[in-house]
Design goal:
The complex is a heterodimer of chains A (362) and B (456). With 362 residues, chain A is of the alpha/beta class. Chain A contains 14 helices and 7 strands. The chains are: A alpha/beta (362), B mainly alpha (456).
């Protein structure tokens, strides 16, 4: 392929007019074949659970679907008396520790990017499984009631959970876009990597290859980070730096609570209280440096925390829920080092959180 | 709009390409090229399309007036007025705040009002396009076009509109004259080949290096000596692959519309002296500065002393062209000094073996990039201090960056330039281009980034 091209201005572009489109057509046809092949493989293997595939292991978690399956198995072995709802930031609340304090058998049903509507859908679904939790713990993220996001697409594609909710006009409009986005996402290097990893796990199951894994009670483990900590190569500063851009994206459009989302949280609280459950809402925060970073970047992270406090106070007044403000470290005695990244606590802080949460007599 | 975005790849380009080749006449093709340029530009901020149109129209009219006027004095008047207007617009939008800040700092009593002036993307590039056109017409190096659509298509030609290369009218005059010819397989092959190579340079190499060094440079005070060197070398390669990648993509797009955009890079890190470097780096800018600034200043025709002064003026203004910041001025001055020093010691310099000259030149360029990348002298000073082992920090040095730096060193010294490749129009090569594009897209999907030279 190496030889010099004609100098500019010396030789005109050679015109080969027949067959004129040979190169272009071959180029486009090859692209089409590659795209179709990649989409077909990605859809068949479905490493992230985007298309409902069940044959191959999932390498990027879809906590909603995975925890539904885990919950049913967990329920088959005994009653579920306590339920943890929330986002990934609540996934480290360990059911066994909650049981130590309360004597109740808990299941952690926190899901990635869980928002008000997720909590309501999950609670209703759990009730449909024939169980009635005595305690419902809701981990409320700073952005869990925010207005700028539609329902999470993993909730939308989950027929059972979606059926627990009323239709969402915003999501209906965004549906087509999300459908395109889901297929487009398969055309990325991380997706190809996940596909290969899924195939590898299928051939030789091995937990150590995963970044996250759920225990049977819904408790989250981070195999990679745990491994790094055991080898003393874990670098919290590095993880925080790597995680900040994602948080900035997440908090970029925040400003006010979305009324529908607040209403769905209220419906959940009302239903749980009506079922006789104790409802504990804990406002889960971010690493202090993340809050500083997001504030410096002009996001409304602080304002949203204030909004959440007002919503929780209102629920406390009207429904008698218990509230715990863990958006800062002080109230539960958390430490700056007790984190895995800029938004997720580790076992140490999670244990402190659990202790503070359950200190009040049930 | 950037070339490595979905909106460009899957909407803008296919539509413009299809419309362009469906059109049969020159005028319609010019109209499509001009309109697409304005859409491309307006996608960033439509309000500045007016500025682009104004600059285009004034230079078009001025060029015609210059060509029609026999009087040297009147021609000069048109030339000066038109160039002054272009430079005035550029100066206001690009340098007003800089000027006002410095006046306020030096003489608070004379403080100028602070204005919220937004820097229009690409203004430095299209202003140089129009200036070169007017000057070339005035010096009778080119005959002015009477076809407004053709001229609008030239100025607003989207492949080179916002980040170059700085294309002179006479360089693409022939292609514009034959814009109505059919598209050939060779042109498609070159277009696709250049574009894919450029895309790979940008999204696979430059963006990955950038993602590694940007966090390090946010806390530059904490750089270790090794980290400071890796960051400097990393930026050296990031800038090259980013900008040469953009230029390759522009060249490729040009070919797909039957226009041959000139070469902008020629293995610059293989230069054996500073002068050689500037013959290889951002060639369209360096030749522009040479032809429209250095030579009109007298070049090297007015004695040795004046030559040095001219070199310094040219390089300082070249530095300032990159941005309204003293660090760019200092970077320009640094290269001016390098060129002057090289000129003064040329005889002795030539006696060194070529690899030694190449290594020293490369080292000088890398140090220059520290100034170029730094947002303040404090940052540049600290960075250079860390490179020399003064006050080293303990910044985490990613292994990936070390790997990229080593690969970069090998690549810039051993790999052929894009212009050294011949892009075959054979079918099997089309498959290679497609695979390259597909792989590059897998890497870039979901990680859109802008080109570094968009800010200039």
């Amino acid at each position: 392929m190496v030889s010099r091209q004609p100098e500019l201005g010396s030789v005109g572009i050679t015109l080969i007019t027949r067959p004129r489109a040979r190169v272009g057509v071959t180029f486009l046809a090859t692209i089409a074949v590659l795209v179709v092949s990649q989409v077909f493989v990605a859809r068949s293997v479905d490493p992230r659970g985007d298309f409902g595939g069940r044959r191959f292991p999932k390498v990027v978690y879809d906590a909603r679907a995975q925890k539904q399956a885990l919950f049913q198995k967990y329920l088959a072995r005994g009653p579920v008396e306590g339920l943890v709802l929330g986002s990934s930031r609540s996934m480290k609340l360990r059911p066994s520790e909650l049981k130590e304090h309360s004597g109740l058998r808990f299941f952690n049903f926190a899901v990635d990017l869980g928002q008000g509507e997720d909590f309501l859908a999950i609670y209703r679904w759990v009730r449909e499984q024939g169980t009635r939790p005595k305690v419902v713990v809701i981990g409320l993220d700073t952005e869990a009631l925010a207005s700028d996001r539609p329902r999470h697409w993993k909730l939308e594609k989950n027929r059972e959970l979606r059926a627990m909710l009323e239709p969402d006009p915003i999501t209906a409009l965004a549906g087509m876009r999300m459908w395109v986005a889901r297929y487009k996402e398969t055309l990325s290097l991380p997706y190809v990597g996940d596909t290969l990893l899924s195939l590898r796990l299928w051939l030789r199951p091995h937990e150590d290859l995963l970044n996250v894994a759920f225990q049977t009670d819904g408790y989250l483990r981070y195999p990679r980070w745990e491994r790094e900590r055991a080898r003393r190569v874990f670098d919290l500063d590095r993880e925080i730096q790597a995680c900040l851009p994602g948080q900035l994206k997440l908090f970029g459009g925040l400003g006010r609570a979305r009324p529908e989302r607040v209403a769905e949280l209220e419906r959940l609280v009302a239903a749980a209280r009506n079922d006789g459950a104790i409802v504990k809402i804990l406002m889960i925060g971010l690493h202090p440096s993340t809050v500083r970073f997001l504030t410096a970047k002009g996001t409304a992270v602080e304002a949203q925390t204030v909004i959440n406090r007002a919503v929780v106070e209102d629920l406390k007044r009207r429904y008698g829920v218990e509230s715990y403000d863990f958006s800062v470290l002080g109230p539960y005695g958390g430490t700056k080092t007790g984190w895995y990244d800029c938004a997720h606590v580790d076992e140490t802080n999670a244990t402190l959180m659990t202790r503070a949460l359950m200190a009040r007599v049930l | 709009m950037v070339f490595n975005s979905d909106i460009f790849l899957f909407a803008f380009f296919p539509i413009v390409f299809t419309l362009f080749w469906l059109a049969r006449t020159r005028q319609v093709r010019f109209a499509i090229l001009a309109a697409s340029g304005y859409v491309f530009y307006g996608y960033w901020d439509w309000r500045f399309c007016g500025l682009l149109a104004f600059s285009t129209l004034t230079s078009f009219v001025a060029a015609l007036a210059i060509a029609r006027t026999p009087s040297v004095r009147t021609r000069r008047g048109w030339l000066v007025a038109s160039v002054a207007l272009d430079l005035g617009i550029l100066g206001f939008f690009k340098y007003y705040n800089f000027f006002a800040d410095n006046v306020t700092a030096v003489a608070p009593g004379w403080a100028l009002p602070a204005l919220r002036v937004v820097l229009p993307v690409g203004i430095s590039f299209y202003t140089f396009h129009t200036i070169s056109y007017i000057v070339d017409v005035a010096q009778e190096r080119v005959r002015p076009t009477r076809n407004l659509l053709e001229y609008m298509a030239y100025v607003a030609l989207f492949p080179q509109l916002v980040a170059g290369p700085i294309v002179r009218y006479k360089q693409i005059e022939d292609d514009l004259a034959r814009i109505d010819r059919p598209l050939g397989n060779d042109a498609i092959a070159r277009g696709l080949g250049f574009f894919v190579v450029g895309l790979i340079k940008k999204v696979v190499i430059a963006d990955h290096i950038g993602a590694l060094i940007d966090p390090m440079l946010r806390s530059y005070d904490n750089l270790s000596p090794g980290g400071a060197w890796c960051a400097a070398l990393g930026y050296t390669f990031q800038l090259y692959y980013d900008f040469s990648g953009y230029s390759d993509m522009a060249v490729g797009l040009g070919h797909l519309f039957g226009i041959r955009i000139p070469q902008n890079f020629n293995a610059p890190y293989r230069a054996v002296d500073p002068s050689d470097f500037w013959r290889r780096w951002h060639m369209s800018l360096s030749t522009w500065l040479r032809d429209y600034l250095y030579i009109p200043l007298g070049g090297n025709r007015r004695g040795e002393g004046r030559t040095y002064v001219n070199l310094m003026i040219t390089m300082v203004l070249g530095g300032l062209w990159h941005g309204a910041s003293w660090t760019f001025v200092a970077w320009g001055a640094y290269h001016g000094l390098l060129l002057a020093f090289f000129r003064a010691t040329a005889g002795a310099w030539e006696r060194f073996p070529s690899p030694v000259r190449r290594a020293i030149t490369f080292l000088c360029v890398v140090v220059g990039w520290v100034l170029f990348r730094s947002t303040s002298f404090e940052m540049a000073g600290t960075w250079v201090a860390r490179m020399t082992g003064i006050g080293g920090g303990n910044e985490f040095l990613p292994l990936a960056l070390v790997t990229w730096v080593l690969l970069g060193l090998v690549a810039v010294n051993a790999m052929p330039e894009t212009w050294d490749l011949t892009f075959s129009p054979r079918r099997r090569w089309a498959v290679v281009y497609a695979v390259g594009f597909f792989l590059a897209y897998l890497v870039m999907n979901g990680h859109q980034s802008v080109f570094l030279y968009y800010q200039f």
